[in-house]
Amino acid sequence: MKELVSRCPIEEVMQLLGGRWPSLLIYYLSDGTKRFSDLQRDNPTISHKMLTLELRKLEDAGIVRRTDFDGYPRRVEYGLTEDGERLVPLIDALGDWWGSMVAAPADATVVAAD
Amino acid sequence: MKELVSRCPIEEVMQLLGGRWPSLLIYYLSDGTKRFSDLQRDNPTISHKMLTLELRKLEDAGIVRRTDFDGYPRRVEYGLTEDGERLVPLIDALGDWWGSMVAAPADATVVAAD
DNA sequence: CTGTATCCATCCCGATACTG
DNA sequence: CAGTATCGGGATGGATACAG
């Protein structure tokens, strides 16, 4: 079943950003334009293949802009679109939320188990 | 995890919320406390097994609180913790962002269907 | 009703090799 | 340098059966 018409936009956006890499790549790109090999250096553990696929996915979603200067050797640059930039603070907010979680463990939030 | 801890909290929080179901379950639970079978009805396409696993994951993360009234038949209720509640608007913001994306495509190519 | 365990198909992803 | 294609192992998740 490939047809998933999400009723909830949340479901869709999580499909896009949910994996391990998308948000990380966005994070690194928020720093400025980078080349393919720069991103490889930033993320030493991502495979060549996955970097390509993730970038393509983000590009298709309109989050990442790809610029191909085809000379030799080839040179391609990746950067965030405006939509991508707008996404950064939202992702950041999730990070802050997570930070507040680990700072104050869930134990303390349990209220009077009667 | 097997490897080093993520430098970026984003990476961690996405590992948690990234899949198809977590955010949806949180959405449904933001509505109020629900039983296992209620959630099954809300999400007709999730399998029994995955519902259990996802709920357990969210519970372990301190997002969901599980209350087991063990009578007969058994009855278990799920609800959001305070941390979970605080997460809702953040997820919502992502949904809004996504909504603004589809509303105004970055690339106006396909719009004109003459 | 809720939860656990098992089996098994599927898919994701890394490694590798090749192209321009 | 950047991208594509292919293969195979391992993780992921559905179906099912069973337990409390």
UniProtKB/TrEMBL annotation, chains A, B:
Molecular-function annotations in GO: DNA binding
InterPro entries in the cross-refs: ArsR-like_HTH, HTH_HxlR, WH-like_DNA-bd_sf, WH_DNA-bd_sf
One matching Pfam family: HxlR
Record keyword tRNA-binding present: no
Protein name (record): Transcriptional regulator, HxlR family
Keyword Ligase recorded: no
Alphabetic keyword roster: DNA-binding, Transcription, Transcription regulation
